[in-house]
Each structure stands twice: as structure tokens, then as C-alpha cells.
UniProtKB/TrEMBL annotation:
CDD domains recorded: WHTH_GntR (cd07377)
InterPro entries: Bact_HTH_transcr_reg, Tscrpt_reg_HTH_GntR, WH-like_DNA-bd_sf, WH_DNA-bd_sf
Name the UniProt record assigns to this protein: Transcriptional regulator
Alphabetically ordered keywords of this record: DNA-binding, Transcription, Transcription regulation
Organism: Saccharomonospora viridis
Superkingdom classification of source: Bacteria
Length: 85
């Protein structure tokens, strides 16, 4: 396989919908502080390329993060990690 190596978001090969597994992985990055509160997360296209998944998978994962209250998306600005209480 040629091209850049894709980041793994499911190293334990858990079963489930790809967008949920990706959302869980991204939530872990937030909880570990790798994406601190107020920081802008990479764009959907960048995440799609980084993880080797379809753009729609990233969009669904981002929606789950919004529903969990972990991020907020501002139109034409990007998606940002919400501050924790």
C-alpha cells in the first residue's frame, strides 16, 4: 500500500459503526487533553484523510461529539473543544 500511513482509531478491532468508533477515539483525545478546551480540532477533510475514512463518517462522528457536549461548531469558523466545568 502506497501513500501516507493512516492513524488507527480502532486498534483493538472493536465491532460497531465506524463513525461511533471514531467519535469514541476523538472523545478520548479530548479527555486526555491532547485537544485542550477552546482549541480548534482539525477540519473534516483533514480528519477524513488522516484516518482514512469517508467524509460522511467524520461528519457523523463530529455530530456525536456535539451531542455529547464535547465540541461546538461555529459556521465558517470550525469546530472547537468546549470548556469543561
Amino acid at each position: 500500500m502506497n501513500g501516507p500511513e493512516r492513524r488507527k482509531y480502532n486498534p483493538d478491532n472493536k465491532t460497531g459503526y465506524e463513525y461511533v468508533l471514531l467519535a469514541d477515539h476523538l472523545a478520548g483525545l479530548i479527555e486526555q487533553g491532547k485537544w485542550p478546551a477552546g482549541s480548534r480540532i482539525p477540519g473534516e477533510r483533514a480528519l477524513s484523510e488522516e484516518y482514512g475514512v469517508a467524509l460522511d463518517t467524520v461528519r457523523k462522528a463530529t455530530k456525536i461529539l456535539r451531542e455529547r457536549g464535547l465540541v461546538q461548531t461555529l459556521k465558517s469558523k470550525g469546530t472547537f473543544v468546549t470548556p469543561r466545568d
